[in-house]
Amino acid sequence: MSTAKQSPIQKVVSRLIAWRTAIQSLFLLVWLDPLNLRMHTVCAPVFHCYACPLATFACPIGVIAQFSALHLFPFIAIGLLIAVGALFGSIICGWICPFGLLQDLAAKVPTPRLKIPQWMGYFRYVVLLGAVLAIPYFFGENHPLFICRICPAGGIEKALPDIVSAAIAGNPIPWPNAIKISIVLAFFVAIFITIRPWCRIFCPLGAIFGLLNRFSLVTMDLKEHQCTQCGRCRTLCTYGIQPDKQPNDHRCIRCLECTQCGPKALQTTLLFDDQPQEENKA
Amino acid sequence: MTMSIKLRQQVMIAVLAVGLGLLAWGAKFHAQPVFSENNDKGLLTAESKLIKEVSVGGVARDPYGKLRMTYTGEAPQSCPT
């Protein structure tokens, strides 16, 4: 079996794939504010609640929703997400997002996994347009479907630490409302029965990055003449995507596992490399 | 839908330029008048400062549509989370 010549970036990626969890974990040192910098005037391009006692930066989705509620255009948050998305696409989701890491760690527990239908990936855009933009704009931040009120990251990273610290200090426990508790419990159940449920069905940040996957500087390339159509890439993909059909699918989180197929027909490249071929037919 | 590499490259450059433009504009020039809790003296507040304020529920629209601080002194911790 002949294998395709690897692009320079793919050579690096091939070495790093085995270390993806370690890299995600290392980025926690950036997001969890070990130096107590509290740089909440700056957004980070990842899903991490700014109400968390351990948050270096502001959550871009929370900022966009809050600005929408105030009828302001969030130039910084949207500009950051568009620029980062144009450069990296959803590599952010697969390699540096702390909320993705939490779900990836749960995915390592050997439990039976439910398959999520592909079409459910579009629900992320409903969340983005509804809970992040429209509902805050028209109904303000008090609406029960305002993104921060239904976000499991807020429940896990803010409400849980508050409960624990209050319990330790012997203070009255600040219980979140029943909806929040239900969402957090449902999230914890879901991450053990399917893979990355939040990212694949609900994440508005992943929706933005996924939308830019086809145009991002770091891109996936299928060398059709090298592809033997063995289907190995589909087996390697735990997200139910067909990388040989759509290497830059908007639901892909770019874990890059599919690049480990035998013929090396799928490769990570830069859009300006000589090597990328025409985008495949959808 | 077939999309050529050249078109993808052009779209990528355009999207990146838009993103960086928005980011630069927001960071450098975008500011809003924010009124203090009790008086009508509006103070131009940079977007980055507003990001910090909204993250703690420190700014709200008043009934007249003005952005107004919700506190004086120590910042609240009243975001919807």
What attributes characterize this protein structure?
heterodimer, A: 282 residues, mainly alpha, two-stranded parallel sheet, two-stranded antiparallel ribbon, 13 helices, globular, B: 81 residues, alpha+beta, four-stranded mixed β-sheet, 2 helices, 4 strands
Account of the protein in words:
The complex is a heterodimer of chains A (282) and B (81). By secondary structure, chain A is mainly α. Chain A has helices at 8-16, 20-31, 60-69, 75-88, 91-95, 98-107, 123-139, 147-150, 152-169, 178-193, 197-202, 204-211, 232-236; strands at 39-43, 57-58, 218-222, 266-270. Chain A has one domain (13-211). The longest helix of chain A has 18 residues, at 152-169. In chain B, a hairpin with a 5-residue loop joins strand 3 (59-61) and strand 4 (67-69). The longest helix of chain B is centred in the first third of the chain and has 24 residues, at 5-28. Chains A and B meet through strand 1, helix 3, helix 4 and helix 9 of A and helix 1, helix 2 and strand 3 of B.
Q: Report the mean per-residue pLDDT of chain B as an integer.
A: 89
What is the average per-residue confidence, as pLDDT of chain A, rounded to a whole number? 92
Largest sheet: spatial strand order of chain A: 1-2
Largest sheet strand order of chain B: 2-1-4-3
Determine the fraction of residues in helical runs of chain A and give it as a percent range: 40-55%
Structural class label of chain B: alpha+beta
User: Strand share of the residues of chain A?
Assistant: 5-15%
| Unreliably modeled segments of chain B | none
Q: Please tally the β strands of chain B and state the result.
A: 4
- The count of domains of chain A is 1
**Number of spatially distinct domains of chain B:** 1
The major sheet of chain B is characterized as:
4 strands, mixed
Portion of residues within helices of chain B: 25-40%
* Poorly predicted regions of chain A: none
Number of helices of chain A: 13
